[in-house]
Amino acid sequence: GLDWARVPVPVTPAAHYLMGGIVTDLEGRSSLPGLYAVGETARTGVHGANRLASNSLLEGAVFGARAGDAIATDAASGLWPAEARDGISPV
Questions:
Q1: What DSSP element (H or E) covers 22?
Q2: What's the gap between Cα 52 and its chain centre?
Q3: Which of 7, 11, 29, 62 is 20 to 30 A from 77, comparing alpha carbons?
Q4: Separation between Cα atoms, residue 59 and residue 54, nearest integer Å
Q5: pLDDT at 73
Q6: Distance separating alpha carbons of residues 63 and 27, to the nearest angstrom
């Protein structure tokens, strides 16, 4: 095993979370009809410059539920493009 008292432990910077990149509204809708994003893939604007520690699990649950409701509503109302309604198509 490693003797932590005698052997230096290497420490290096690493990216361990993402602040999102897909701009969404508070229901997870993006600017591309039929594309929704939640959690660490979405930039909702709720965090500012940095996220609070341990908030990502709760954020995923809350915004996942909101996006799920929006997806169900949008699908039923016909707001999705034909490609999204009819199945898989090239992007």
A1: strand 22-23
A2: 15
A3: 62
A4: 9
A5: 92
A6: 7
Given a contact cutoff of 8 angstroms between Cβ atoms, the answer to whether 55 and 76 are in contact is no
pLDDT for position 90? 57
- How far is residue 62's CA from residue 4's CA, in Å, rounded to a whole number? 40
* Domain assignments of the chain as residue spans, ordered by start: 22-79
Under 8 Å CB-to-CB from 23, ≥6 apart: which residues?
30, 31, 43
For the chain, the average pLDDT equals: 81
Instruction: Give residue 40's Cα distance to chain centre.
Output: 4
The pTM (predicted TM-score) of the whole model is: 0.66
Q: Measured between alpha carbons, how far is 88 from 8 in angstroms, rounded to an integer?
A: 52
